[in-house]
Amino acid sequence: MRVLVINGPNLNLLGTREPSVYGATTLADVEKQLRELATELGLELDVVQSNHEGVLVDAIQQARTDGVRYVIINPGAYTHTSVAIRDAFAAVDIPFVEVHISNVHAREEFRHHSYLSPIATGVIAGLGTEGYALALRFVRSQL
Ligand code: DQA
Description:
5 helices, binds 1,3,4-trihydroxy-5-OXO-cyclohexanecarboxylic acid
């Protein structure tokens, strides 16, 4: 039961990036916590972070080849701009959960629209980095 966690642009800076919005936890901390949880839940976990839209599209396409059963994605700013990432999910037909650390709906209006949400299984927003672990537990319940 293979699960892929994808983080998009600027999420490599977690911990130092706008800590009042995104908190003090680093991406390495998040990935370590998720790896431990995945082991506990009996899941195989792959993680990828990129600042490049095409690399994220490639990772989603590769997920099908690799037999990934579910994706958890924080697409960062590409949430609000990327038809290409949405099309990649539609093409591979792998279910996914969209995660946002901040409550995008309580922020600027341009963050209120997501190209991905209409085809996501569900969306977690505003629960901090804990949202990733909650998403992983949900995914486990679906597999
Ligand atoms: C984010 C919210 C996005 O609007 C923003 O561009 C990010 C992070 C979040 O996790 O809250 O990079 O996806």
